[in-house]
UniProtKB/TrEMBL annotation:
Residues 104-152 form the Ribonucleotide reductase large subunit C-terminal domain. It comes from mine drainage metagenome. Gene3D superfamilies: 3.20.70.20. One of its GO terms (biological process) is deoxyribonucleotide biosynthetic process. Keywords: Cobalamin, Cobalt, Oxidoreductase. Residues 20-91 form the Ribonucleotide reductase large subunit N-terminal domain. Its cofactor is adenosylcob(III)alamin. GO terms for molecular function: ATP binding; cobalamin binding; ribonucleoside-diphosphate reductase activity, thioredoxin disulfide as acceptor. This is Ribonucleoside-diphosphate reductase, adenosylcobalamin-dependent.
Length: 154
């Protein structure tokens, strides 16, 4: 039985070439750019390096950071695709200080009061501003048609 062997890629080269549509999406949504719209990531591999470096920064020693940076970079070059906020925002703190690498969050418990509902709306605005999605669990709110005190309506 024969086994195909992949030839090693040139250092710094992305293993999987992007199709034109994929390149366009990367350029418009995930390529790091300055506030003036100038590309910071020169190419897709620069994005991979930025992401790998950012993900490995949590390690406690330079050796571990380098160990994981290399592995993350290998995975990215071989087709691993992180969530959109990770791809867009990891390692981008200088250019995007108020963003997050979290794609989706879940709101805290919403108490059945006007003050708490409005507080959750405010929190949602801040969450969306950071680029995250948000989910809600509404079972703590009264059902449709229930009496609302002081509103004068049902």
């Amino acid at each position: 039985m024969s086994t195909a062997r992949a030839t090693p890629a040139l250092p710094g080269a992305a293993e999987i070439p992007l199709q034109p549509a994929s390149f366009d999406i990367w350029d418009k949504k995930y390529r790091l750019k300055s506030k003036q719209g100038v590309a910071v990531d020169a190419d897709i591999d620069a994005s991979y390096q930025r992401i790998a470096r950012a993900l490995s920064e949590v390690e406690t020693t330079p050796e571990l950071r380098e160990h994981w940076r290399e592995r993350f970079l290998w995975a990215l070059r071989h087709g691993a695709i992180p969530a959109g906020r990770i791809t867009s925002n990891a390692g981008a703190l200088t250019h995007k200080p108020a963003t997050s690498t979290i794609n989706c969050t879940v709101s805290g418990t919403i108490r059945d009061s006007m003050d708490d509902i409005l507080e959750k709306v405010h929190e949602a605005g801040l969450t969306l501003k950071a680029g995250c999605g948000i989910g809600y669990e509404f079972s703590t709110l009264r059902p449709r048609g229930a009496y609302v005190s002081g509103a004068g309506a049902y």
